[in-house]
Amino acid sequence: MAATSYDHIRTRIENEMMDLHNDDEEFKGWIPLSWCVDLLNTEEDVRAALDASETKWKGCTSRLAKFVRDRAPCLFVMLVYSSMIELLEQFHEKDIGDACFPLEVTFQRTNRSIEGVADRQVKLRFPRGTKPKDAMSLFSDDQWLFFAPKLCWTAFDDPPLTSKHKLPFITSLEKFSGTEFSIVYKISIHRDYVDMELGDLEIASDAEGHPYVAVKKLLPNSLTKDAFTSVVKAEHETLTMLRKLPAKHLIKATAFYKRDDDLFFLFPWAQHGNLRNQLHGLADAIRTLHHAEDSRMYRHGDLKPENILYFNSSANPKTLKDHTCCVLVISDISLSRTHDKSTQFHSKTKMVGGETIAYAAPETELYPDRATSRRYDIWSLGCLYLEFVIWLLYGIEELDRFGREIHGKFYTIIDRPETLQVSKMEQAKVNPEVDRWIENIKKDPRCTTAGGSKQTAVSLVVDLIKERLLVTAANPDPRDPDPKGTQTVSDSGGRSYDSGFHLIIRAPTKIGEGFLDSRVPDAGKDERAYVLEVCDKLDTIIQDAQNVATTKPAGPHNSLNDDVQLGFPELPDAGSPTHIEVLREWIRDCDTHQCLHSQDEPFLPTRLLDVEEHGMKRSRLICDTTTLPKNAKYLALSHRWGSHPKPGVPDPLKGKIVCTYAKNINTLKQGIDAADLPSTYQDGITVARELGVQFIWIDSLCIIQQDKSDRLDKDKGDDWKREAEQMERVFRSAYASIAASCASSPAEPFLKSRPERQCVKMQTGNTPYYLCDTIDDFSEDVEQGELNKRGWVLQERALSRRTIYFTEKQTYWECGEGVRCETLTKTKNSKTTFLGDANFPNSFPDYVKGKKIKLYQDLYERYSKLALSYPTDRPIAIRGLERRLRNFLGTRAGYGVFDVYLRRGLLWQREQASLQRIDFSNGNESVPSWSWMTYAGSIRYMNVPLGGVEWGQWENDVVSPWKDYNGVQDGGKAPNSALKVLVRDILVSVIEPSARVFLDEPSRTFGRPFKCVIVGSSKSSQGQVDIRTTYYALVVTPLSGQEDRNVYERAGVAFFHGYQIVWDNPGVEGYIY
Questions:
Q1: Confidence of residue 1041 (pLDDT cuts 50, 70, 90)
Q2: Are residues 140 and 16 in the same domain?
Q3: d(CA 665, CA 922)
Q4: Torsion sign, CA atoms 970, 972, 975, 980
């Protein structure tokens, strides 16, 4: 290595750390051991670096180099980064390597230097001239960047990690699911910091081999600390036992760790989610759980689809008896209990209510004070199997309908007043709707062979569900008798079965004579089965189905899998009768479901375009809609205005009526020929007429525009200002909105030919089917389309009850039930559903507080990236949407900030290189500097952990502008745009790398000192000033010319440490404008 090796290493470290500091995500803030090892290469390289470090070493550097390579690579890198390389010899002499870190150190000042006493009572002497804050920073900040803990299965009483520990995660936490008692996150963990032992299961990993894991955070809910600890300890014991069981269909926890007072379990990530397949394997897993080898018997207690995970199998495909590469694993076994006397004690707490009601057995309600039987799990299996059959036969929409019709319970509680009972114990029966569904399924042609004389495998499974699983009569005594035999269910060859139930997906298969009598239990057996019986019956059904399937092929009408999409192989021409009929069907279907709620009161815009044919296909502008019926329907057109043509380029809109002005409004009232309108408007009128809607609202025609080319224009933009304030109601009350997504300007039609779709026709018997290109991409075609990059369109989409999008490739429909494609597919996701909610934001109050925060922040971040023809529209183009959110949250709001989330709303930062201040001097808007609406450019919110911030301690540092306001808020403003704050001095330069300051305009020269306003702090401070505490702050500077009045403007935001803030001087009251 060259003589400059030390400088080379230092530069590499600084570059790496700069990357970390440029991203304020906590999960990025650590350096893995492998990076340190790769950096140092060989022992000779380390020795060369030590020799080049300009440090006077007492001894030979060879011994130090060996120490670094073998035992202290991370320590060496840390010392180089902290400019404390002189300490390396002391660490070597005192035998302190990587394994000893992190260290707890106390400091004392001597006459000559600073001494640190480590937790092993070892003194470290810092070089003369070392600043106290640098010495403390080595152990209070720097060491945590280099010594992330390895996560493994630990004893419950092992000491916890602290909030300073950097966990070895390499992606951000992605919330996957949550209940009152736990939250599950998906995250990627560094491969060197976890041991994944999955046997034949394939580990879900990223491209670099870092595994994905599920992090389960336990929540105490309303339990006391001791009760919560007891519950989690019991779960830890159960998971410890499960790690020893051989069944691969039971989840094996990977790690357990504590962090301060929080408790976490780590599980392998199931890359294929919750699939309802491999029914026999699941039953066998329950058998293993109920009859463990240690002579104790366990139950699960919360079987449901969400707790059944789907893994790829890493085993040789030739050894898999079901010819699949997946394994279903039962998870969330936190409710599992040893089935002995202790169960009776625990059952009275019902495991703090963790059972899921939808799949709970009747005895949960009938015998609430008794311990839960193992046959509780059998009822849950019956629920799961029946749902699986419904999904298999009829699809997910019918499964959803089934769930609605049974109202979330598979049984009902009944009273028998006509029957004399010794006790007043209630009785249960199977939900009548469940019985009705079962009877209808048995009539399905797929449940009988041709002629209806024989049952198929599907029918036999339904019989098993009805007669042996969903049976309300079950011995309430927790001491279930042990059924005969505990052997593993096996085939004639003695091989243990773990196959899925995938063959039932095939066409109905014929079962041999006498099968039902010999295999399916007698109806006289009116008590719920035990798990061994369930395994035996499923085993027999599957084997017979396989035998028949291999000797008699299914008919041609069932040769396709159930998931083949029905739809158009070639899309109809846009605007053709077939295309219009699809649109009509979407509307008719939407009119029948529950996503549309009645409006509070009928509303019509000030003006509408009447598109009824008046002799010559003329339309006319209605300027007084009060004369129309209150329930009149109209469509709202969302379109791009386009840009003016470049000099020398012909204007395609020349001679067309594009806008309504004061000078031409009378002409429009008399009537307009279709040929006089731009192509986009013509297509909008065509769609309205074809859908039977008489009126359409087009902003450029229904709002009088300011004619800047006419100095005599009387309007001066006044009508637009009035109409902009009611834009919310215009789109909210429209019968539907139509979005011209594929039209770049009004001159371009949106009913135009689409790209040819590639497809191949195949024939089976008399039935043709097609293999086609997948063209469904709502995100790319709509959300990332040019129209949706416009600022006004976000509000139009969110406030519309339902929208039809005309894109380059196909047409999409969006309403509260999800997104439909012209190919006849349907999709749904949370953020799309949130924006496409027909009653936006109807679903908002249902979310937990954290999700509400994330959704509104995502909404504003998305809006900030959108373009506006006039930057001064920034606070206006989202005002209607902000008003609706404000009303649903029951709070006050303005300038992009909600009073209920005031402090989080203030902690926004630029996402791009710089923001640009908007000049509002020529308009009626006045936006304060603490609002992101005062800038043009994209923003994002600071990475402030949910639930991890102390806000109340600083309530006097930031006072809400709505604090003393009791009036009715109508607009999107605050009564007083000044934010009353407590301003503090800081001891940090904005160019200091560890400062983590984000200025809104980095290139701007202020010429005045920076100060800070503390908005919140990390909870670890416990009310004390602590150098380890993170402070979330606004960076402010005196307003030019107002220095003596304590008037400030916002300059940015920052993450500060305690030593970077001046605490000796009291804060000064001031105002941010």
A1: confident
A2: yes
A3: 27
A4: positive
Residue 283 and residue 276: Cα distance in Å, rounded? 12
pLDDT of residue 563: 45
Cβ–Cβ under 8 Å, residues 296 and 320:
no
650 assigned to some structural domain: yes
Q: Are residues 753 and 716 in the same domain?
A: yes
Structure tokens at 472: 């309300």
Separation CA 10–CA 71 (nearest Å) = 20
**Is the pLDDT confidence value at 654 over 70?**
yes
**Are 552 and 599 found together in one domain?**
no
Range with lowest mean pLDDT among 237-241, 592-596, 634-638, 811-815: 592-596
Strand order in the sheet with 818-821: 672-673, 618-622, 608-610, 695-698, 634-638, 736-739, 803-806, 811-815, 818-821, 826-827
146, 166, 188 — which closes off a domain? 146
Q: pLDDT tens, 541-567?
A: 655 554 444 333 333 333 344 445 567
Asked whether residue 909 falls in the same domain as residue 998, the answer is yes
Count CB-CB contacts under 10 A for residue 767.
11
Residue 14 within a domain:
yes
pTM attached to this predicted model = 0.50
**Look-up of token digits 């306001």:** 965
Q: Are 472 and 362 in contact (CB under 8 A)?
A: yes
Domain boundary (146, 170, 195) is at: 146
Question: Are 882 and 904 members of one domain?
Answer: yes
Q: What tokens were used for 658?
A: 């594009």
Q: Tell me the C-alpha to C-alpha distance, in Å, between residue 244 and each of 197, 307, 331.
A: 12, 20, 15
* Cα separations in angstroms, 63 against 52, 58, 85: 16, 11, 15
Mean pLDDT of the residues in the chain: 78
Q: Is 985 helix (H, G, I), strand (E, B) or coil?
A: strand
Tell whether 588 and 704 lie within a shared domain: yes
Tokens coding 846? 């249902």
* Other CB atoms within 10 Å distance of the CB of residue 522: 8
The total domain count for the chain is 4
At 346-368, the pLDDT tens digits run: 333 333 344 557 788 888 887 77
Q: How far is CA 671 from the centre of its chain?
A: 50
Measured distance between the N- and C-terminal CA atoms of the chain, rounded to whole angstroms: 57
pLDDT recorded at residue 116: 61
Cα–Cα separations (whole angstroms), residue 307 to 152, 204, 339, 505: 23, 18, 21, 22
* Alpha helix positions (H), 406-473: 432-443, 457-464
For residue 396, what are the CA distances in angstroms to 402, 410, 812?
Answer: 10, 18, 20
Top-confidence range, 82-86, 402-406, 453-457, 634-638: 634-638
Strand pairing class (1047-1057; 997-999): antiparallel
Q: Do 860 and 821 share a structural domain? A: no
In Å, how far are 379, 523, 579 from 468, measured between CA atoms? 9, 9, 50
Are 761 and 768 in contact by the 8 Å Cβ rule? The answer is yes
Distance CA 431, CA 200 (A): 40
The residues, any chain, with a CB within 8 Å of residue 217's CB and separated by 6 or more, are 182, 183, 184, 185, 262, 263, 264
Q: Is residue 177 part of a domain?
A: no
The parent domain of residue 711 ranges over 577-836
Alpha carbon distance 980, 1069 (integer Å): 7
Is the CB of residue 619 less than 8 Å from the CB of residue 671?
A: yes
pLDDT tens-digit series, residues 496-519: 333 332 222 223 333 233 323 333
Say which residue the tokens 């299914």 belong to.
554
Asked whether residue 75 is assigned to any structural domain, the reply reads: yes
Same domain, 396 and 422: yes
How far apart, in whole angstroms, are the C-alpha atoms of residue 721 and residue 399? 49
CA angle 267, 273, 276 (to 5 degrees): 120
How far apart are the C-alpha atoms of 740 and 684, rounded to whole Å? Answer: 8
